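Posted in: Structural Biology > Protein-Ligand Complexes

Title: Requesting predicted complex, zinc ion in pocket

I'd be grateful if someone could produce the 3D structure tokens for the following input. Sequence and ligand are given below.
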Amino acid sequence: MKPNSLPLLALMILLMCLACTAFADGDAPDLVLKGQIRPSENHTYHPVPFTVPANVNRITVQFDYTGRDQRTTIDLGMLGPDGFRGQDGFRGWSGGSKKLFTISSTDATPSFLPGAIRAGRWTLLLGVPNIRPNVTAEYTAKVWFGHPGDPAWLPEVLNPPLRHEAGWYRGDLHMHGAHSDGSCTSQSGRQRVPCPLFLTIDAALQRGLDFIALSDHNTVSQMNDIRELQPYYDRLLLMPAREITTFTGHANLFGSDQPLDFRVGSATVPDWNSLLRAAAQLHGLISINHPIRPDDETCMGCGWAPAKPVDMHLVQAIEAVNGVDALLPDSGIPFWQHLLDQGFRLTGVGGSDNHDARQVVGTLIGTPTTVVHASELSMPAILAGIRAGHVFVDVQGTRDRMLNLTAGVGAQTAQMGDAIHAAAGQKVRFTVTATAPEGARAEIIVDGKTWQPAGVDLAVHGTLSQSFDWPGDGKRHWIRANVRDAGGNLLLVGNPVYVND
Ligand SMILES: [Zn+2]
Ligand SMILES: [Zn+2]
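-- Reply #1 --
Done. Output follows.
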């Protein structure tokens, strides 16, 4: 080795280490606290101090110890920098009931108290109800620190996938409960009350959904309920969301539990672009809601009416089908397609906008259903599937209707949301597949206009699998499919395959 290669080697090792830190981000704990509990500590409290650095807004602890088979029992609590003296010093006590808990400004695992996370010396407080005279226990506490701007799916240890298989997952991306203006009749039927989240969840499960986004207006207080309910409801992904609700339009932000200043038109948030740039820092996903609603006294601020042009590159999805607007012709589809025509790749999604989990007619949870192809049932995978456009909307929210559009040119293949390149004169082979009631019919939309491939029958006889060629002209196009029933009503809305995008 040449002498001058040593600095290079050091640099390479440094770069490799930076890479491994980045790779391990979200998975490896920030601290590992290890220690022993000795027999002499029976019936005492054992403090484990640790330092919380500045700019931390969540502490997550996973705790384990040896000796359970010898009846060793260690209880668990948490104290902030002021201990029992300060107003927010005591942060909870779980006895021996929790192996994993989190505390943040918005939410905490039951037994623990949400609130500000101050930098300083915190204490994991261990209590020892029992350790035998001849036993020494080894404990390990892994500690993860969260930071402002972290997405809601970190740390991963708190948010394991509910299912590991890739597949089509059905969900509702828009609803309101007790944390905003969702209400339902109380148990006795005597009054209307803020509708508790478990009723929303039960309604979603009855509809056979795999995920729901809890999009209360402008708040993140639903996070604390999610923290309690998600471990029990381990077949339904509860996705943190909020409906950013302004005087000039509504948009959902998915996948973030962080506060966001929504006051568009104020000194701090002069316009929608500044709000959307702040939202982008939170790593969530933005969808413009019910864009064609009126903006008047029937629905104040509901229509999409920003005072200045909005940079649509800061938006990832459009609520093409809203449950409340379902009776309006095509809901938000013309708005969405107009943006597709302008060259934006925006995913068309649906949301019920349910405000009463117990209602039996009208905008039921799951009507419409957004169906997402995801690598697993987890928050980041569902959001990645939506971002990618691997999505169709089941307008009536059934359990079994399907729609897909794939394309191939030579060795290239694409599914909904993907792009494919086709030179002028080159044929693109499309295949539309669908499951829908007898009498339904698929339609192909090219750049916003219905296009009937010559000699191809698009009638759905329970199922449909039909291929056709589309002549490329070397220019940009977007091509998607719908399915309508015999009466012409929309049943399924597919996302585009983009050509030459
Ligand atoms: Zn709204
Ligand atoms: Zn809403």
